[in-house]
Amino acid sequence: MDDDERTVLELPFHDAMLAAAVFAADPARVGGIVIRTVSGPARESWLRNTLSLLDAGTPVRRVPSHIGDESLLGGLDLAMTLATGRPIARHGLLKEADGGIIIIPSAERLTAPLASRIATTMDLGAIPLQRDKFTATAPTSFGIIALDEGQSAEERPPSALLDRAGLHITLPDAASPKIDVDTFTRERVKIASRAAASIPLDDDCIRLLCELGAVVAVSSTNAILHASRILRLVAALNGRNRVSEDDIAATIRLVIAPRATRHPEEAADNSPQQSDTHDQNPDDNSSIQEEAGRLPDSLIAAAKSALPPHLLERLQSDNHHQFSKSTTGKSGDRKKSPRRGRPIGFKAGPISQGARLNIVETLRAAAPWQPLRRREIAAHCETDATNRIAVRAVDFRVWRLKSRGETVTVFVVDASGSTAVQRLGEAKGAVEILLSECYSRRDHAALIAFSGRGSELLLPPTRSLARAKRNLADLPGGGGTPLASGIDAAAELCDAVRRKGQAPSVVVLTDGRANLNRNGKPGRAAAEEDAVQAAKTLRCMGVPAIVIDTSAKPNAPAARLADAMGAEYLPLAYADADTLSKAIKAQDARSI
Amino acid sequence: MRATFPFAAILGQDEMKLALLASAIDPTLGGVLVFGDRGTGKTTAVRGLAELLPPMLVVSGCRYHCDPGANGSGCDDCQTRGRQGPLPSEMAPVPVVDLPLGATEDRIVGALDLERALSRGEKSFEAGLLARAHRGFLYIDEVNLLEDHLVDLLLDVAASGENVVEREGLSVRHPARFVLIGSGNPEEGELRPQLLDRFGLSVEVSAPENVSTRVEIIKRRDAFENDPAAFKVKWLPETRRIREQILSARNKLPKMELSQEVLERAASLCVRLGTDGLRGELTVMRAARAVAALEGSDAVSDHHLRLVAPSALRHRLRRNPLDESGSTARIQRTLEDVFCG
């Protein structure tokens, strides 16, 4: 029994070491490892072991999360250029890592653009350098080790990175890491790396991997491709010249299972054989599902007519109680470059409209042209110009800023039983309209829903409408109305949003009839009291808000809530009740 | 650089391949936007396109590879030389230029040649990516992540077909007409509406769910990775066939017949879908002609309209930008209405 427990405990660590060996055998071909675990002794020990499996002298580079393009991709080496009198390129980190590996700490915080640059370089096997006078493709190949410290499901490294890294492992947080150092040695890894290519992979094996992928709904063909490459390496590491069942099992654990988006049991009645014939018309299938998830256009139109235009803009203007048109322009008139905020880079440009000059970059831009300009100045005037630096307007580099004014609109949707099915549909429609306003303004949106089961963050702040729309369509309704807990959740999220330097605003869609208090106990009076309290908290935070009353007739509780929140109160009146109910009936009939 | 996987060996993804071929036949279509998940062959298809394109006739020694037959639309140099007599010409491959995300403005629009400025104190223009892409394709992977100031720059040039550079007292203007190809993953961020408008066709790709298809994809990739050269040789006949197809389609295109009936149906399709302006109809017609030419037909039929309508109109349903994912279904429904009712 003791023995059994040991194996159970050690499996993740054994797999982690197997992954390390597979990676070390051919870092560039495997792509990389994403290791998800908290920073601690277990990870440190794993990382040390992994690096020890690599050949001595293999380049290892760390990518800091704030790295600029010049350091990452390369560019002009100014000192050398000026010294030699001809353009000299400077290598970026990705070139320095050629033949070795790069380590990405806190990979869950890596930005999508940075991940994309790394991914493109991996795809091409070269850096497509198009910077500062250099058009070159610098060949480089490397593997990545991404240290993912994400806690929640949402905190994941960018998908570009996850896709390129063949191996995904999770290491439990253990005080005493049980990592068996001796399992794999550098010699064994080396032998395997040479032997892997000659291991045959028959069609049945590939088919098996594909079918397993289909069962757990791994959609990317890259994942299966990774699996087929890694399978050979696993077999070679185990000292075999043919793949065995054990090798396949290990590959599944390391490559396919971590990417699963569906539990195999859910797919049980949709077995691979069936799905083979079933999926002959995948388009039909998906469009039916899409159809079912989509809201009827008539509903959206109805909700649209019930909402005043440019609602969000008014919300985000400083004086959101006033309905004056002068506060903001039309939604398209977005400011091109913000004047305040965090510097995220620089660009060439005139110093106007309060843009800040980046002096170092300006001087760097001017430096190479000095000999040319001095000659020109000398030719035109008598003065001796040798000791001056000639800076011209074309050299000006100004900071590009990421505005703190980026807005996040938090939608709080009442999905309780009191908001009848029709009203919920309509509320969804209204949220869709508002989301599309967010889209044209390039704002972020987040979605919180509350119903009998409490409040739930359905969508963390995102700019992706595809996701917002899907999560909204899947929103179930029913149960009590824990209004207070919904507003509390919104306040919490607003706080987090503020800390990220973005400006939150809240849109609450409810009928205001709370019947569950903060502790989840039923009781109308207490629940409404709690809701008003929560609303006041939100008001104290100074978050601009709108309360959209979804009840059939405008009613007092929702108005009171809006008042406590300092929010604008808007009854979502029926545009045309008759058409609407017909549309809903038609929709119901179709879905049966 | 790694070898590119042959376009001809890409399995499935018919809509994407059709859109890319259509824009190779008729560059005025306005480019292709490919949106979809990772690992669906978007990048592979675009990079594979380069090998497929038949070579084009260019003015010898012209760095913008101007068309010797185009009067008045070439660069300044070619226009001056063209007045003195016929220009010497030669065949050259059609450029497919990658615009990587980390590119600087200097490299995109072109700048002074630093080497000559430093070593000889001379001012001369060094062409950028836009010049290289003239008469060819400009490909931006992860186009939705492109920085705003670069997007603005691209929009300007794409609208005017001309690139203007002023630097160190040097003023250069040259033609820059290219087919814009963009790809991206919508989950990582939306595309700016202005840029979305620029694309003639937009396609959505997803990974095939059919297991047999996936097995075949993996087998082909595996064979390619084991021996890229041998794999390419194996697919050479198919690559040649598609190249011939493009060439004969280009010849057919000017003579393509378009009946009043088909025109009316395309118009009613656009009206029902509520697309903004006439650009949708124009694109549907042009794309339908290109696809008809590709299939070797003499006239555009309803079949061709049906083939191209989703890609030509998907991104133009402007009523509700949220409907993007469902817009394919909406177009299909309207197509049924228009063709059956």
Describe the structure.
The complex is a heterodimer of chains A (592) and B (341). Chain A is 46% helix and 16% strand. Chain A has a six-stranded mixed beta sheet with strand order 14-13-12-15-16-17, with helices on both faces. In chain A, strands 2-5-8-1-9 form a five-stranded parallel beta sheet. In chain A, strand 13 and strand 14 (454-462) form a beta hairpin. In chain A, helix 1 (2-25) crosses helix 9 and helix 10 packs across helix 11 (221-237). Chain A is flat. Chain B has 341 residues and is of the alpha/beta class. In chain B, strand 8 and strand 9 form a beta hairpin. Chain B is globular. Chain B folds into two domains: 7-54 and 94-205, P-loop containing nucleotide triphosphate hydrolases (Rossmann fold), CATH 3.40.50; 254-340, Helicase, Ruva Protein, domain 3, CATH 1.10.8. Chain B has helices at residues 14-25, 42-52, 76-84, 105-109, 114-120, 129-132, 148-160, 193-198, 211-226, 228-252, 260-273, 279-294, 302-313, 327-340; strands spanning 32-36, 56-59, 89-92, 96-98, 110-112, 125-127, 137-141, 162-167, 170-175, 179-184, 201-205. Chains A and B meet through helix 4, helix 7, strand 6, strand 7 and helix 8 of A and helix 4, helix 5, helix 7, helix 9 and helix 14 of B.
- From N to C, what is the helix and strand string of chain B? HEHEHEEHEHEHEHEEEHEHHHHHH
Number of strands of chain B: 11
Specify the structural class of chain B.
Answer: alpha/beta
Cα distance spanning the termini of chain A? 53 Å
Q: Strand share of the residues of chain A? A: 15-25%
Q: Numbering strands along the chain, what is their spatial order in the largest sheet of chain B?
A: 4-7-10-1-11
User: pLDDT average of chain B, as an integer?
Assistant: 85
The total of helices of chain A stands at 24
Radius of gyration of chain B: 21 Å
Query: Mean of the pLDDT scores of chain A?
Result: 73
Oligomer: heterodimer
Based on secondary structure, the structural category of chain A is alpha/beta
Strand fraction of chain B: 5-15%
Quickly count the helices of chain B.
14
